[in-house]
Structures are given as C-alpha cells and as structure tokens.
Amino acid sequence: MKKFYVLFLLTAAVSAAATAQITMPADSIPSTLCKTWTVSYALMGDTKVTMQPGAQAMDFAFNKDKTLVLSTGSTDTKIKGTWTYDAATKTVKLIINGQGKMTVTKLQADQLTMSIDTKDATPDDPMTLKLVYKVKS
C-alpha cells in the first residue's frame, strides 16, 4: 500500500509541474502577453494538426488593461473578454462570454500555448485541445 501511495504522489507531482508552465515573474507577463497572436497549430491529444491555408483562424489581441479581443475568421467577428494571471496555477485564465474555458498554460516571447476545456462540447469523449500561437506579424 505504501508503494502505491508513493507512486500516486510522484504522479501527481509530475502532473502538477507539467500543467503550470508560466515560469516568468508575474510583473513580466503583461509585456510578453500583450500582443496579437495567431494560431500556428493545434494539438489534439498527441496529434499535431497544422492550420491549412484559408482555414478560419482565431486571433487574440491581449491588452495591458487585462482585456482581450478574439477575432474569428474572414467575417471579422470580434468578441471581447478579459484575462487574469492566476499565481496559484501559474496560468492566464481567459473569460469570454462569461465563461472561462480557455487557459494560457505556456508563455514565451514568441509563442504561447492555450488549453481549451472541451468537456461541454464532447462530454462522452473529453480530450485536451491545445492551440499553439505565434506572434502575428
């Protein structure tokens, strides 16, 4: 039983370290995050899905006043939201249309990774959907 407990604790520690990946100081986050980002590719489980030419993109523009604008596709639909840094989980939580289903789990100067909660969309087969963004030029 002790071996099982130790194995469980090790697994939990590794999982926690893998999800909390924003390692920069909290006061550096706005200057790194507050840019316009465009999707580079998606990760569905372990499968990398590249964006096809002409595919509908989801671009994010983050602002230093902790607001954001999500632009979708060729219709230029713009959806406003907010963002906040959660020091406990070391992630940036996005609130769009009153819902917090998107989280920035990794942030670098030229790339961010966003995790999307798909439980409501696919309750029988929830999977982790991650979008990897690059700075829009």
Largest sheet: number of strands, sense, barrel closure: 8 strands, antiparallel, barrel
Strand pairing plus helix content: what structural class?
A: alpha+beta
Q: Output the number of helix runs.
A: 2
Helix and strand element order: HHEEEEEEEEE
Number of strands: 9
The average pLDDT score comes to 81
Strand content: over 45%
What best-fitting shape do the alpha-carbon axes yield?
globular
Can you give the helix content as a percent range?
Answer: 10-25%
Low-confidence stretches: 1-20
What's the CATH topology name?
A: Lipocalin
Describe this structure in words.
The protein has 137 residues and is an alpha+beta fold. It has one domain: Lipocalin. The chain has two helices and nine strands. The protein has helices at residues 2-19, 29-33, and strands at 36-44, 47-50, 58-62, 67-72, 77-86, 91-96, 99-107, 111-116, 129-135. The chain is globular and about 35 Å long. It starts with a helix and ends with a strand. Mean pLDDT is 81; it is low at 1-20.
Briefly summarize what is shown.
With 137 residues, the chain is α+β, with helices and mostly antiparallel strands. It contains 2 helices and 9 strands.
Question: Secondary structure elements and their pairing?
Answer:
Blueprint: H1 2-19, H2 29-33, E1 36-44, E2 47-50, E3 58-62, E4 67-72, E5 77-86, E6 91-96, E7 99-107, E8 111-116, E9 129-135
Antiparallel strand pairs: 1-2, 1-3, 1-9, 3-4, 4-5, 5-6, 6-7, 7-8, 8-9
Feature tags:
single chain, 137 residues, alpha+beta, Lipocalin, 8-stranded antiparallel β-barrel, 9 strands, 17% helix, disordered N terminus
